[in-house]
Design a protein that fits this description.
By secondary structure, the chain is mostly beta strands. The chain is globular. The relative contact order is 0.14.
């Protein structure tokens, strides 16, 4: 099941599939579409479905949140996460490595704070993003 976000001002839809190292951006009026591969290539989809059960699969992308000028994808790598910021055309803006796993996140622009939650062990964290958010200002 894909995670989908929509920015009506930019007429962009972002579709993120959890098990594939790529995501799609397109417009409702069919004037724009792109597949973005942040790691530079698409691995065979068979790698993710053949001879594996759902319990053994590690999520590659775990959620996407959209904001006015950009969207952010949470990439899970073992027990750590990284947040990838992209503009609504799919151009990379920023890559933040988190020190631990985050299964969910959100950004508070008023207080310049990133909030993360790890559902596996119920740990809530917050990080100061003031300097970082000025570079990709909302």
């Amino acid at each position: 099941m894909p995670n989908i976000i929509f920015n009506c001002d930019k007429n962009r839809i972002v579709e993120v599939l959890e098990l594939y190292p790529q995501f799609n951006i397109y417009s409702l009026d069919d004037n724009f579409s792109v597949t973005v591969m942040p790691e530079g290539k698409i691995d065979s989809y068979k790698r993710y479905i053949d001879n594996e059960t759902a319990e053994n699969k590690e999520l590659i992308y775990s959620g996407v949140n959209g904001y006015e000028k950009f969207f952010v994808i949470n990439k899970i790598n073992g027990e750590k996460s990284g947040l990838w910021f992209f503009n609504w055309d799919g151009m990379p803006l920023l890559d933040i490595k988190l020190p631990e796993l985050a299964t969910s996140f959100d950004i508070d622009f008023r207080n310049h704070t990133l909030y993360t939650l790890n559902f596996k062990n119920d740990i809530f964290k917050k990080y100061d993003l003031k300097d970082i958010l000025e570079g990709v200002s909302q």
